[in-house]
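Co-fold these.
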Amino acid sequence: DGGITQSPKYLFRKEGQNVTLSCEQNLNHDAMYWYRQDPGQGLRLIYYSQIVNDFQKGDIAEGYSVSREKKESFPLTVTSAQKNPTAFYLCASSSSLTSGSYNEQFFGPGTRLTVL
Amino acid sequence: AQSVAQPEDQVNVAEGNPLTVKCTYSVSGNPYLFWYVQYPNRGLQFLLKYITGDNLVKGSYGFEAEFNKSQTSFHLKKPSALVSDSALYFCAVTRRGTNAGKSTFGDGTTLTVKP
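Predicted complex below.
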């Protein structure tokens, strides 16, 4: 059964704590992405990675960090520097096209993070 | 830079009527265009895409979209709406070319189909 898994589904964090969100895919996709979704604001790109051991900042990278040590895994750490981390976080992956760009994205079920 | 506009936050249609969800884009060079659907508290699901070729693309669940290069639009359509089509719809654009890994999503349009 192929796809993307995210864990946990719900996560609660105290202010000042770092927390790591897991994202794993078994689709053999090269590219992986992290998005933040807030009500009425659509998806905003946090980080993306086109290849193992390489990643780029998206539009709202401040207060977040990522790693891409394995093709299958792209964990996101929400640090204490992120001022308003309560949101729905979505991970996605996609395959590369011969043109050098990327195909449609497959999304995980999301992690809802709440800061207490 | 690339951007996507979905000019309508909300679209309401009656079941059985045709529906259109609008999308316009801005990108340097040739685009790849995508439509996704999201149900509450779920991840996005891919509906259809324009990569190259025929401007009219057909996708899942009876949806289709037409790529119009001169109007830089990629509107989502369905001839006969179902109540189960009610969801949040996102349009996305990716620039074609080497290392073009970043997609930009619109803010989404909530479609409500009433029985």
